[in-house]
Each structure stands twice: as structure tokens, then as C-alpha cells.
Input
Amino acid sequence: MPKECPPPLSHYPSITELLFDCDNTLVLSEVLAFEACAELANEILGKHNVDARYTGPALMADFVGQNFRGVVRGMEDKYQFELSDDERESYVKMEEDRVIATLKQKAQPCVGCNEELEKLAKSKKYGMAVVSSSALRRVVASVEKVDQAKYFPKDHIFSAATSLPKPTTKPDPAIYLHACKVIGVKPEECIAVEDSKSGTLSAVRAGIHTIAYTGSYEEEEKQAEIGKLLTSLGAKVVMTHWSQFEDCLATIEKS
Output
């Protein structure tokens, strides 16, 4: 059985908007995406005479929560080579196309997520938005594949890679601050749901109350490890299964 959320930690103002990360929070997409982009990452490394090679899980371990632009910059820093801006953007587009093709075939919703989104939509109590590091085309393809697009206004799906004047990636809080500005809410009036270190830091640094979701990690030991990490970074409660969402939400609202 899923564990219950911890008791209230502090006082919060009224919550009006729920902000959801996409990859491995709404949609089980990270493993599929990293498998698809590991091949391209290895092509880049080989072209620059770097012997190291990545599997999907290894790439995910190093760069989970970041978009491919962040992955490429991370590899440039780690392995001491440099791409031109045009080369980097060409690879970003290639990765986006490959990942989208994979997600359109294989993506599935996180277990229990669609049921909770349906309840929220019927309640009409909160606005809902998607706030992701991934490219907008990829996010839209993901939520459409798993029948979640109907829960989010088209202009309330935000991408750190696409929606900002200057592309960035989480843990930069810019995409969360941008989403709040566009929606017309204050950060303290929002709750974010995040599954990764970079995502949690992005939301927390934006001043948004954050639920740490660990249900996309298969092993209980790993769930506990990630939950501990994300709460140490500022997440207020841990959710191991989407069936706990209502209680986690209430924990923050009633404190």
C-alpha cells in the first residue's frame, strides 16, 4: 500500500493552480526518451574523439530532469569539447525528432495519474498546467499519446526549451516564473509536482510549494532515496503513488 504523506510543515496561502512536470510525473517517458537520445549522444562523443559511451540508463543517471540542450552542454563540460551554437541546435532538433517518434509509439501515463487528473478536472477547483524542461513538441506529443491533453489549455503547456525568449533547462526557475506570469498567479498560490532533483530545485527556487513524486522509480529503496533527496531540497511532501495526490494537496492547503 502507498505510504501516507507527512504531516503539515508550515502555513501556505490559498492554492489556485497546479503545475505538473511531464516526464516521469504525468507520462512514463524518461526511460524511452533517454534510450532514444543515448545513441545520438554517443554519435556526438565519437565525432569529438571521446571514448566514453552512454546507455540510456547511464545517460538518465547523469542528466535526469534536463532537456537535451542541457545534456549536450553537460557533455561538453565533462569531456572538454565545444560545439558551435548551430551544431548544438542541430543536435537538439535531431534528438527531439527521434524521441517524439518513440513516445508516439510507446509512451504510457504514470500509474493512477489519469484518474486523478479526471477528478481534478471535474472539481473545477484548480487551474492546471504542464511545466517541463523538454521541447514543447515533445511535451504535447506525450500528453496527447496518453490522453491527458484535454486537461490542459494549449497555452498552459510550458517548455523551458521552447517557451522562453532564451532557452534554458531546469533547475533554472525561469520556466516556472514564466508560467506563473502567463497564467496570472503568484508562485505561492501554486503547487508543483516534480520527480527529479533539477525539477524540484526549479520549482522551489521559483517559490512554489512542491510535491515530490517518486512513483516512477520502480524499487522501494530508490523511491525512499529520491524522496529523502527531494525533501532535503525543499519539497514539502512525498507522493509515492498518484492515489495519494488528494491527501498531499490537502496537507499543504490545510497547514
The chain has ten helices and eight strands. The radius of gyration is 18 Å.
